[in-house]
Amino acid sequence: MRLLFLSIFILSSCNSAPLKTKTVAEQSDVRFESILDRNDVIWGFDFLPDGKVILSERSGKMILFNPTTKKVVELTGLPKIYVSGQAGLLDVRVHPEFSKNQQIYFTYSEPVGEKSSTTALGLATLSGEKLINVKKLFSGKAANENDIHYGSRIEFDFKGHLFITMGDRDERNHAQSLEFHQGKILRLNLDGSVPKDNPFAGNKMALPEIWTLGHRSPQGLALHPETGDLWEAEMGPKGGDEINLIAPKKNYGWPLVTYGKEYWGPKIGNKEKSGYESPITYWVPSISPSAMTFYTGDKFPTWKNNIFLATLSGTHIHRIVMNGKKVEGEEQILNTLEYRWRSLRTGPDGFLYLGTDEGKFGRLIAK
């Protein structure tokens, strides 16, 4: 790495006025090493214990990739998937006890009727080159004909639960309603049932899967490796992208509270409001954060526990240096490649792996 000073400007969640942060004293001198080229959006990926990678492509394909032999296998057995606009096969995660059960979780746009769809969660057993025992564990309420804002990241708390994000599906008011799953983070048991200690489980006027509400288009979700806190990243409209520290039953504001505006210019809601959670940080103009992770590898020691975001309109990897719950600095990485970065995760070999909308999969390595 070469020493440079990167001055940045961010907006603080604790104050409506912009505050200048400390600089990032080292700018990462890295490059992207592509190890797989496909023809579709690599929406999500995860690593199997044997070193293979399972990847989801938005057009509805799930593939198994061996980085050593470069062999690519398209897995059979997926359910019917609605593919249109932002709809398709979404995230994929390996079960925390995969070595025992060979199970894979995945989210997808489920067709409902002739024109409608919703976000669904599936579970399957990986058997050779096919998926068997495929089950639908969850289906979001309610389906509609819009083909945007499905969510939908999966994260585990390693205490027997998983979280999934669901976007507002362009039904803004539903993000504030406990009668709909749109615009929520949901918490389920690993078998798809509802945990009894979910914050709305005893509320007859609420859907019991709801963990938090007031989200717009949440495509980033990650558990802090040391504290166990759940963090989320979501896209605003014109500006107002956010990172949030997630706590049960909290309301994160959309569409009543946002730093974003309508695409044609008018104000949407308040920037801050009592009773609603403010973001840890936000961006105006937008960078469109997709996947989110905390770096836990050993290849770049100065990155330990930094937040990394894949960005779409930002066309770069966004590194955030945290001090507790406060942002100390930010850095844009790979901003000259102009890829739409969709997915990222620390690999078992300590490198940071990335997937793009252009179908590239690879890792960051030192120049």
The end-to-end distance, rounded to whole angstroms, is 8 Å
The H-level CATH homologous superfamily, spelled out, is TolB, C-terminal domain
Shape: globular
Question: What's the CATH architecture name?
Answer: 6 Propeller
Number of separate structural domains:
1
CATH class: Mainly Beta
- How do the helices and strands follow one another from N- to C-terminus? EEEEEEEEEEHEEEEEEEEEEEEEEEEEE
Helix content: under 10%
Which runs of at least 5 residues are low in confidence (pLDDT < 50)?
A: 1-23
Model description:
The longest helix is centred in the N-terminal third of the chain and has 4 residues, at 98-101. The strands form seven sheets. This protein has a six-stranded antiparallel sheet with strand order 3-2-21-20-19-18, with no helix packed on it. The protein has a four-stranded antiparallel sheet with strand order 5-28-27-26, with no helix packed on it. It is built from one helix and 28 strands. Mean pLDDT is 93; it is low at 1-23. The protein has one domain (2-366): Neuraminidase, CATH 2.120.10. The protein has 367 residues and is mostly beta strands.
